[in-house]
Every structure is written in C-alpha cells, then in structure tokens.
C-alpha cells in the first residue's frame, strides 16, 4: 500500500505565518498601538458587554441597559475572533486620561422611568456584571446588590443600583500596568419600587505607581490556574491517570501477548497438524478480514474529516504551547480555529479520496462532497439554530450578517478549493489495496454473538477507560468554557491528550482483536465506533454528568477558594470569583494545600474504582474470547 504524501515544507511555513499573524490581529488593541502615554493623554476605554454572573454564555450589549450614553458613541472595529467570541466593544462613558486623578466626576444626570427601573432591577436580581477593556486590560464590576439581610420573605428584599464607581489604576513610567474597579457601597439607588428615579452617575479615578514591568501585567489574570492547590490537583490527576493507564494497558498487553502467542504456536508448531485441524477464532476468518466495509464512501469521508480535525488539534496545541492564547485573548482561539480548519481542508480531501480509491471506489467527486459536508453541515445547522435564538434574545452571541458573509467566503474561496485540490492529489496518487491474504468471494456468516459483544456495549467499554483518565481535565475545561475560570496550563492538557491517544489506540486494538476472535469480520466500522465513542459520545456524556461533577468537585474547590482567599481585601471581591487575586492577597497555603490533597484523593479514589470496574469487564471479555479459541 502506497504511503500518503505529506504536505510540503512551504505549506507548513505559510500556514504557521498565517496563524501567527491572524492570532496577533485578534488582540483587543487600543488606539495607542505602542501602549505608551504622556500625562493627560486619553487612554482607550471600551465597554464590552453585560450579563448574569452565573451564566457567562448569556451576554448582551453594554448599552442595552439604560446607562448614560456618550455624546459620540463609537464602535470599535473588531477582528473575526472577537466577533465570534461575542465581544461588542463601544466607547465607554468614563474618561480615564493618563495620570489624571478625578474626584466624583459626574457622567450625567438621568431620570429613570418605571420601565428602566424594572430593567435595572431585573439585572441586579440576576447578579449582572459588566466587562470593559482599558488599554487592553479587562475589568469587571457588578451593577448593584440585593439586600437580603434579616428578610425571610423575598418580597421584602431591597434592590440597589451602584451609581458611583472607583477606578484604581497602576502605572509604570509611561505604561498602564493594572486597573481595578469597585463600586461605592454608600452611593446607592433604590430600585425596589416601580417609580421614576433620579440618578447622578459619577466616578472617581486614582493613579498609583508600581514597579511591575509592562511585560508581566497580564500574569495576574492566570494566577488562579497556577495557584499551588490547583496545580497539585492537576498533577495528582495526571499521575493517577498514568498509573491507571500503565496498569490496565499492561494487563491488556499481557492478555493479548498470551493469546496471540498460543495462537501462533498452534498454527506454526506443526503445519501439517494445523492443516488437519479445524480452524477457529481469528484464523478462521482470515479470508474475510480485509473485505471492504459497507458504505465505504462514508467511511473514507469520516477518515478524511477525522484526519483534518486531528491536524487542527495538533496546530492548536502548538500555538497554545508557544503562548499565543494568553488569558482574555480568546478571540485568537476562534480565529485560529477558523483559519486552520480552512487551510487543512486539503488534508481531508487527500486522505478521503486516496483511501476511497484504494477501496475501489469510483465516484470520488461525491466522496469529496460528502467529506466537505460531513462536519460542516451539522455545524451549520447547529449554528443556524443557536444564532436564531441569540437574535431573538438580542444576545451578543448572535453573529452580524457581515461576519456570516466573511465565514461563507472563507469556506467558498479557501476551504472548498483546497478540498478539491487535495482530492485530486489523492485520486492521482491512489494505489491498489494490497491485503496480506486473499479475500474470499463470498463472506462467511457471522455466528450469533452475546449481548455484551454488541455495538453499544462495546462502545461503552471502549470509552470508559479513556474517559476515566481525562475527566478531571474535562472539568476544568468545561469550567473555563461555561464558567469564569481561566484555563492556561496547556502543557498539562497536552500531556493528558497524549495519554488519551495512547489509551484510545490500545483499547481499540484490544477490542478489535476480541471481535475477530469471536469470528466477527466486520471490524471496520466497529473500530471507528470505538474511537467515535471516546472522542464524541464520552464527551457528550460528560456534559450531562458535568452538573453532578460540578456539585462534588466544584463544591470542594469552592471551599478551598473561600478558605484560601479569606484574607482578600475589598477590592478583590469586585472581580470574578476564582479568577483574579491581587498581589496583596495572601492565601493560607497550609490549609489550602490540605484541602487540595483531600480533593485529589477523592479524584484518585474515583479513578481507582473506574479502573477496577474496567479491569473486571476486560477480564470477562478476555475469558470469553479465549474460551472461543481452541488451543489444542
């Protein structure tokens, strides 16, 4: 079988250059490109979005709430990744000029109508927060508070809006290093009753000098991921996963080596005796093993799309490890995903067309169309539904028409041509499928199989072991995607990814052998189902199980955070929980470390139980497969 051609060196160089340039473009840039200012210079401040704290995916435009609108409202031109991330930056009503202190500077005087009061009260009830960018630095703050003290009946609650905020900005020479914002607890507006309210919005600015260099100003946003107790949890989970993987893979290797050794001894020790004996197990179906699978066009399309997505994953890991995806530059990730997927579509076309032609397929054009739509079509349908819902609720997740046109043009002018070029190259480089044995003319009948050898039980067993090795990292990823936690430890994630690849390959080979030993020669799709279950079904199941894991794992983590951050000053409470800790915060390392050990031990216990159950199931399968083979 002829080897597949690899992309040339120039293609890799061009791809890397495009990725790095596109990632750099996605940065939320200020008007001062060099980030250097003189006293009195205006520093760009953009209001981004507002939304409920407990649902970070639900965000709206900042001025959807009746704030004071500047006289000259200016929308910032955003890159593709920023729009996909839901960022909608507009000029904020505050003016924070460089090194200019302000005391109770008035923004505007506004009379809130009953409808506007009700809108603010609804936002305060849902713990709405706002997000802004000041010289590329993200800042957050809550809109108001609910007074529940001493009130058992919710109808007695008091709702207040913060009308005065205090900005504390740190600078080093001519650069902005850090900014914090906190509301004035004494400047409140009562929103409890539905009546017109007069509000005087104001703010205070204080500048302070710091020795922190400009190059390290973003480090505080990733401190929550690198705190000692979080790192210990990650490393404990990795060590435990490695030990579990080594034990179970060693166990499976022992079974395979013993069974295969006995089979080879049986068929090679005495050839004449072996010819006289009735063949059983995998030797019995040697003439059917390399029979082409059903729906070979779909199988080749799935192989091509999977190869493209695997290549996409590798490039994303490379960019993450070199530091492109730093905290709160998530637009870079979305841009990289779009660009890399478009540029790697040629790999999908080449792989699918080459393999399809090796399987003696004739309609390679239809195979290319299937390859191009296998991933994009479900993604497009899902996008249409979600974007319609976002438009209905006026959320920032709704993509503008111009962005949709840009994505369609990328797919039409880049993805599709590269897919066709790759398919043509794969078709012209096809080689005959050279099986090591001759395939019989008629397939053998597959004997009846017990229920636990069916497709669904086999998929469940295939996904159980890899999922038990990665579910701790999945929790942190989900907490980052659907929560306020930041994930920046890409090196650990890469190690877990390597573990996942090893376990996936090994468990797929083992289950494929067990299937052949049971004289079931239709292994093509079964092996694909095993990988599909590990990469898709198990991840989908983890989304459902995330709520239960969140109660346990996040509950313990919340206790750790509360005890560790018990000495945080008032300024820390205005930032997102579990996200930023100021330099002045001094965590209690001893107590936090002890609780981190407890949480890691709980995770280890869960993985050991998972490993025990998986071992029992593997033993049961191995015994049943060995019993079906006659050793003579």
UniProtKB/TrEMBL annotation:
Any Gene Ontology biological process: protein localization to membrane
Signal peptide: 1-23
Keyword Membrane annotated: yes
Subcellular location: Endosome membrane; Golgi apparatus membrane
Segments passing through the bilayer: 233-256, 298-326, 332-356, 368-393, 399-421, 459-478, 490-514, 535-560, 594-622
Keyword terms, alphabetized: Endosome, Golgi apparatus, Membrane, Signal, Transmembrane, Transmembrane helix
Coiled-coil annotated residue ranges, if any: none
Pfam assignment, any one: EMP70
Topological category with respect to the lipid bilayer: Multi-pass membrane protein
GO-annotated cellular components: endosome membrane; Golgi membrane
UniProt family annotation: Belongs to the major facilitator superfamily. Phosphate:H(+) symporter (TC 2.A.1.9) family.
PANTHER family associated with the record: TRANSMEMBRANE 9 SUPERFAMILY MEMBER 4, TRANSMEMBRANE 9 SUPERFAMILY PROTEIN
Protein name: Transmembrane 9 superfamily member
Organism per entry: Rhododendron griersonianum
Organism taxonomic ancestry: Eukaryota, Viridiplantae, Streptophyta, Embryophyta, Tracheophyta
């Amino acid at each position: 079988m002829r080897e597949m051609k690899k992309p040339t060196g120039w293609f890799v160089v061009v791809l890397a250059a495009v990725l790095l340039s596109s990632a750099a473009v996605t940065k939320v840039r200020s008007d001062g490109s060099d980030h250097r200012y003189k006293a009195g210079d205006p520093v760009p401040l953009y209001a981004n979005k507002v939304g409920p704290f407990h649902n970070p995916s639900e965000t709206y435009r900042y001025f959807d709430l009746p704030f004071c609108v500047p006289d000259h409202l200016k929308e910032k031109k955003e890159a593709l990744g920023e729009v996909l991330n839901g960022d909608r930056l507009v000029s904020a009503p505050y003016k924070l000029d460089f090194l200019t202190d302000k005391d109770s500077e008035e923004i505007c005087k506004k009379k809130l109508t009953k409808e506007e009061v009700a809108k603010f009260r609804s936002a305060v009830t849902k713990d709405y927060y706002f997000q802004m960018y000041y010289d590329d630095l993200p800042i957050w703050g809550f809109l108001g508070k609910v007074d529940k003290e001493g009130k058992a009946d919710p109808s007695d609650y008091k709702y207040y809006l913060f009308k005065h905020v205090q900005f504390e900005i740190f600078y080093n020479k001519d650069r902005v290093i850090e900014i914090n914002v906190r509301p004035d607890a004494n400047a409140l507006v009562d929103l409890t009753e539905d009546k017109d309210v007069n509000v005087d919005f104001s703010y205070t600015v204080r500048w302070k000098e710091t020795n922190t260099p400009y190059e390290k100003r973003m480090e505080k946003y990733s401190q929550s991921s690198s705190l000692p107790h979080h790192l210990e949890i990650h490393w404990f989970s990795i060590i435990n996963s490695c030990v579990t993987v080594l034990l179970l893979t060693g166990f499976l290797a022992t079974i395979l080596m013993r069974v295969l050794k006995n089979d080879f001894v049986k068929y090679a020790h005495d050839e004449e005796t072996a010819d006289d004996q009735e063949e059983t197990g995998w030797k019995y179906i040697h003439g059917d093993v390399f029979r082409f699978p059903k729906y070979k066009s779909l199988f080749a399309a799935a192989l091509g799309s999977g190869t493209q997505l695997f290549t996409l994953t590798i490039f994303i890991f490379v960019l993450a490890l070199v530091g492109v995806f730093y905290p709160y530059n998530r637009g870079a990730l979305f841009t990289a995903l779009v660009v890399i997927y478009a540029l790697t579509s040629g790999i999908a076309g080449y792989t699918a067309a080459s393999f399809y032609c090796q399987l003696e397929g004739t309609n390679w054009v239809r195979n290319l169309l299937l390859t191009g739509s296998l991933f994009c079509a479900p993604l497009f349908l899902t996008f249409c539904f979600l974007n319609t819902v976002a438009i209905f609720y006026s959320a920032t997740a709704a993509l503008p028409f111009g962005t949709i046109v840009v994505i369609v043009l990328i797919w039409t002018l880049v993805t599709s041509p590269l897919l066709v070029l790759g398919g043509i190259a794969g078709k012209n480089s096809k080689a005959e499928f050279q099986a090591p044995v001759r395939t019989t003319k008629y397939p053998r009948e597959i004997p009846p199989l017990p229920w636990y050898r069916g497709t669904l039980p086999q998929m469940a067993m295939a996904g159980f072991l890899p999922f038990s090795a990665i579910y701790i990292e999945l929790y942190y990823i989900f907490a980052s995607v659907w929560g306020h936690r930041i994930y920046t430890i890409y090196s650990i994630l890469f190690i877990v990814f390597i573990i996942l690849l090893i376990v996936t390959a090994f468990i797929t080979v083992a289950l494929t052998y067990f299937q052949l030993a049971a004289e079931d020669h239709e292994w093509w799709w079964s092996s694909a189902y095993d990988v599909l279950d590990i990469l898709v079904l198990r991840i989908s199941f983890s989304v459902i199980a995330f709520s239960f894991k969140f109660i346990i794992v996040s509950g313990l983590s919340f206790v750790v955070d509360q005890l560790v951050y018990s000495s945080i000053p008032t300024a820390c409470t205005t930032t997102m929980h579990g996200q930023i800790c100021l330099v002045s915060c001094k965590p209690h390392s001893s107590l936090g470390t002890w609780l981190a050990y407890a949480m890691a031990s709980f995770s280890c216990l869960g993985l050991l139980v998972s490993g025990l159950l998986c071992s029992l199931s593997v033993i049961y399968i191995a015994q049943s497969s060995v019993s079906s083979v006659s050793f003579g």
